[in-house]
Specification:
By secondary structure, the protein is of the alpha+beta class. The chain has one domain. The chain is built from three helices and four strands. α2 packs antiparallel against α3. The chain is elongated and about 65 Å long. The model has no long low-confidence stretch (mean pLDDT 89).
Length: 97
Amino acid sequence: MALVVYKDKKYTVKKNRYGFILCNNHGDYDNHGHFKRFNTCMLLIGLMESNVVPDSEYLRQSVLRISIDEKYLNKVKTKMDKGTKKYININKGVKRK
């Protein structure tokens, strides 16, 4: 049994004894994800509403499962295929005499 913690037009967040379930109201049963924290659910709702691709690989996989917006899903898949290259400062921590 799950208790509804948050609900709006598109998404519902339910709390069960293991964590939280984020459901897409306009999708099928498959369009849901399990999370340990409520803040993660709210973060994902905000990212999906504003069509921002998450940096975390775990959150990207969750977005692919929850969202039904094809344009946004293509954007996420494109970023997953490219991968993320972050700048690494090679000279960091070098001590000169």
